[in-house]
């Protein structure tokens, strides 16, 4: 493992500024230095931040088993077999009955809610039971535990904050109340008869608001669209007139997505190109995620998980390539490429086996050609400051079906590594594309493949199940954003109203090939990768150490947990898994 203490990068910023001067433009300086102090938190973290700052000023910132092996990618990734299937209702109720004597923090003094006309499907009830039971959904070695006290908060503030329920807890309480009022199995006494007496007035309103949203989703699931619409209209009475809290914001965006789905199903709008009756093209989320802009840079700088992924992933690559003098990295989705400055600094530190060539190749399309070119120039300039022999290549294809091994340039004796940061899930809706990509990668015979993906199941063919999973996932995400960014911050508004809302719309309102956002959990990826002769590698202690250092660097790290489950690293916010990092080799 490498440490920044081994190197003197005191003049690094000046060198980078000189080399990159021609590719930078004048713009109002964003105060990155005050975002992070100079305290060392692992190898090259400060240099990484400096490099990211330089990139943020570039001109493109202004632009916005055998059976498993026989299953096709379409069947596998469409979540028919390889998802966490909810147990039958009877099993859920039996489990809850077994836990009836378990102590709960909320007293049983709630009135029985009026029963719904139709209960959730068995699978959906099982989902809410799983979320509502309070069980830990992860089983593995806990690396980082969330602290009970925020390091930046006074004791009085901590005590006050402990009176509040998190967004996930509000969703869980609402879900369990909804189940209890829906269940026709009255013979089983429910241990989670949540009381409003322990909730603040605003939290009580939020629980009722979420119940309305769940009731509307239930009606949509049974194609009772007019009832669903009326329930959504009732939500308006619960929104605050001023700044909305995370619960109200996540419900607002899910409500809008539900309305759009109802409008499509009832013929009010015809396709995804029409948004709520306004004839304009929808925000292209997949394209936007590949183009660097200031909003994404600002968000990823305050998001611990983004840097955990980069440092843990790069550490794994450094260990795998060992003393190889020629290194070829294939980045499936490069965006700004800042993570490769960390790799450069690690390689530049080698004394006994100096590097002869570092080559980075990225895959792109015509839409991404310009910014990829700029990224390559910027990385070349950075490599020059480090005296690293460097080559940047791009493979441009209109679709992955056109990708061939001979499009890549290889030198003799070079070692190949593949890096995929949220690039595979975007192709799940096009199984032939992702299969073509994986066949090419296998043919390249890389020594390692690093995969970072969203840890969520948003690909169920069941609408209600997909809706429920997404609601809990994005509830945790909005809670995270509430902690990281001020409510009136412009970049936060863009993150929520454009990027996050478009993902929610795709999951909730789109169907068939139009549904592009199809996250799946690590178990699905494991089964899929096995078909291509891939074997998961355990993350080293050094990689986990790097992840730990990064988390501890953030004040909000108190709410983050790192879990090693199997051989993968899971990143969670207040107990809800949001992301996984896994390392693979080809047999």
Task: Describe the fold and architecture.
Helix content is 45%, strand content 12%. It contains 21 helices and twelve strands. Strands 1, 4, 5, 6, 7, 8, 9, 10, 11 and 12 form a ten-stranded mixed beta sheet that branches. It has a two-stranded antiparallel sheet with strand order 2-3. Strand 11 and strand 12 (576-586) form a beta hairpin. It is globular and about 70 Å long.
Question: How is the topology of this model organized?
Answer:
Blueprint: H1 12-20, H2 45-56, H3 66-70, H4 73-77, H5 89-98, H6 122-132, E1 141-144, H7 155-162, H8 167-182, H9 201-221, H10 225-234, H11 246-265, E2 274-275, E3 278-279, H12 285-290, H13 294-302, H14 304-321, E4 326-331, H15 339-348, E5 357-364, H16 369-385, E6 390-396, E7 415-421, H17 431-444, E8 448-454, H18 463-484, H19 490-509, H20 522-530, E9 534-537, H21 541-553, E10 560-565, E11 568-573, E12 576-586
Parallel strand pairs: 4-5, 4-7, 5-6, 7-8
Antiparallel strand pairs: 1-10, 2-3, 8-12, 9-12, 10-11, 11-12
Helix pairs in contact: 1-2, 1-16, 5-6, 6-8, 6-18, 8-9, 8-18, 9-10, 9-11, 9-18, 10-11, 11-18, 11-19, 13-19, 14-15, 14-21, 18-19
């Amino acid at each position: 493992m490498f440490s920044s203490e081994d190197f003197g990068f005191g003049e690094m910023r000046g060198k980078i500024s000189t080399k990159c001067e021609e590719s930078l433009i004048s713009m109002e300086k964003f105060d990155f230095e005050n975002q992070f102090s100079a305290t060392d938190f692992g190898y090259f973290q400060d240099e990484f931040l400096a490099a990211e700052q330089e990139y943020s000023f570039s001109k493109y910132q202004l632009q916005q088993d055998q059976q498993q092996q026989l299953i096709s990618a379409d069947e596998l990734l469409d979540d028919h077999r390889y998802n966490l299937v909810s147990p039958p209702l009877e099993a859920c109720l039996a489990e809850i009955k077994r836990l009836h004597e378990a102590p709960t923090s909320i007293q049983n003094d709630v009135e029985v809610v009026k029963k719904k006309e139709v209960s959730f499907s068995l699978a959906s009830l099982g989902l809410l039971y799983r979320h509502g039971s309070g069980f830990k959904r992860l089983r593995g070695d806990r690396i980082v535990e969330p602290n009970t006290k925020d390091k930046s908060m006074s004791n009085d503030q901590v005590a006050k904050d402990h009176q509040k329920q998190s967004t996930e807890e509000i969703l869980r309480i609402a879900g369990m109340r909804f189940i209890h009022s829906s269940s026709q199995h009255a013979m089983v006494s429910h241990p989670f008869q949540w009381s409003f007496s322990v909730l603040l007035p605003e939290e009580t309103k939020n629980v009722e608001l979420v119940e309305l949203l769940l009731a509307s989703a239930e009606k949509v699931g049974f194609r009772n669209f007019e009832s669903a619409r009326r329930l959504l209209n009732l939500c308006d009475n619960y929104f605050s007139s001023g700044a909305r809290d995370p619960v109200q914001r996540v419900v607002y965006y899910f409500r809008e997505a539900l309305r759009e789905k109802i409008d499509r199903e009832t013929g009010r709008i015809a396709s995804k190109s029409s948004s709520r009756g306004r004839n304009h093209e929808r925000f292209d989320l997949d394209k936007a995620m590949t183009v660097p802009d200031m909003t994404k840079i600002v968000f990823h700088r305050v998001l611990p998980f983004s840097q955990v992924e980069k440092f843990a992933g790069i550490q794994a690559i450094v260990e795998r390539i060992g003393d190889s003098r020629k290194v070829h990295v294939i980045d499936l989705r490069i965006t700004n490429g800042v993570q490769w400055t960390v790799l450069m600094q690690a390689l530049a530190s080698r004394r006994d086996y100096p590097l002869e060539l570092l080559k980075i190749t990225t895959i792109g399309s015509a839409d991404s050609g310009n910014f990829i070119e700029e990224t390559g120039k910027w990385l070349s300039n950075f490599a020059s400051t480090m005296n690293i022999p460097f080559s940047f290549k791009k493979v441009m294809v209109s679709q992955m079906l056109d990708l061939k091994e001979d499009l890549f340039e290889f030198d003799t004796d070079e070692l190949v590594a593949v890096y995929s940061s949220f690039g595979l899930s975007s192709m799940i809706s096009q199984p032939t594309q992702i299969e073509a990509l994986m066949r090419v990668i296998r043919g390249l015979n890389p020594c390692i493949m690093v995969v970072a993906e969203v840890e969520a199941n948003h690909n169920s063919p069941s609408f209600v199940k997909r809706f429920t999973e997404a609601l809990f996932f994005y509830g945790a995400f909005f809670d995270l954003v509430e902690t990281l960014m001020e409510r009136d911050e412009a970049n936060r508004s863009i993150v929520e109203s454009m990027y996050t809302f478009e993902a929610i719309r795709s999951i909730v309102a789109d169907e068939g090939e139009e549904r592009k956002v199809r996250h799946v959990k690590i178990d699905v990826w494991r089964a899929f990768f096995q078909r291509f002769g891939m074997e998961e590698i355990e993350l080293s202690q050094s990689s986990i150490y790097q992840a730990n250092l990064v988390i501890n660097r953030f004040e909000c790290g108190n709410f983050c947990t790192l879990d090693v489950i199997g051989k993968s690293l899971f990143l969670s916010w207040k107990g809800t898994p949001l992301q996984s990092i896994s390392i693979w080799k080809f047999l």
